[in-house]
Amino acid sequence: MAEDPDIVAEVSEKGGVGKTSLTAGLIAVAAEMGLRVGGVDLDPRSTLTDELGITDPVLSVNDIYYVDPEKPPRDPALIARDAFVPAGKGWPSNVRVLPCIRKFGNRETDATTGMEFRLKRALWGLREEVDVFFLDVPPRAGGKLVGSALIAAKKVLIPATLTDDGHDGATEAMTSIEHYTNPGGLNEGLKVSGVVRSIVPRENEYRQIHQDWSDRLVEDFGDLILPTIIRNYAIREVCRTGSMPITAAPGREAKLLQEVYREVLFHTLPHLKEKS
Ligand SMILES: Nc1ncnc2c1ncn2[C@@H]1O[C@H](COP(=O)(O)OP(=O)(O)O)[C@@H](O)[C@H]1O
Ligand SMILES: [Mg+2]
């Protein structure tokens, strides 16, 4: 019998810290292992949707969350079956996507009862078709879309750049997460897999200020800080521009990043190591 899928959310309450890049990287290396991967884009900017090679989707996460007040609510599990589409060309066929559109931003202020629970039900509806989901979560402290992801997810990864924003985004994310994981909270079983130092400057660009932020993260988050560091490699931008998985990108930098994403994947989902 198939096990329930893993559900990993990439969360920080600041933008530009590498959430979407980490999500795309994890999707790529998990797919290369032959797993059936689901990418879920919850950021109205739709960066992950673009990167996964999808333009103008017919259905999106907006259809999963939106409830027409004039009609009886539809089951998110059924909508998800129609909205879940293969990633674009360039991506392996075992990657599928719940894409996002701009309009999904309206859901942030949507007062529909129970809307935050619809994603959890949607992913449940896809449980037999997917081994692991990766959720790209928008940066908005205390927001509803973040909340819906923290209800659906089983694991959280927090990317943090060695900057003020990186540190703040991680700190605020931890506060939001605790609302859900506290005893009696909406998702007590949710685990923070760790804080990943992200877009870290390379040797000749690495200054004392970066070391100071790194020390500060280690001080504040202790054992939650992953030993693995995601460095700044220009090939990352090539992946975004070309809607290409890092596993298909050429050159030494791509190989290094793949290895790093694999380490983060195994740290988060250690049981996958046996499959590799
Ligand atoms: N390891 C990396 N090396 C170089 N550039 C990176 C790396 N990770 C992310 N970036 C770039 O930094 C910018 C912000 O990353 P992104 O993943 O979009 O962050 P977020 O989703 O948190 O807003 C993007 O242009 C992205 O391509
Ligand atoms: Mg993003």
From TrEMBL:
Q: Do you know which Pfam families this protein is assigned to?
A: AAA_31
Q: Which domain of life is it from?
A: Bacteria
User: What protein name is recorded for this chain?
Assistant: ParA family protein
Q: Which stretches make up the AAA domain?
A: 7-182
Species per Swiss-Prot/TrEMBL record: Streptomyces tsukubensis (strain DSM 42081 / NBRC 108919 / NRRL 18488 / 9993)
Gene3D superfamilies this protein is in?
Answer: P-loop containing nucleotide triphosphate hydrolases (3.40.50.300)
Coiled coil ranges:
none
Database matches in InterPro entries: AAA_dom (IPR025669), DNA_Partitioning_ATPase (IPR050678), P-loop_NTPase (IPR027417)
Keywords in UniProt for this one?
Plasmid
Task: Read off the SUPFAM superfamilies from this record.
Answer: P-loop containing nucleoside triphosphate hydrolases
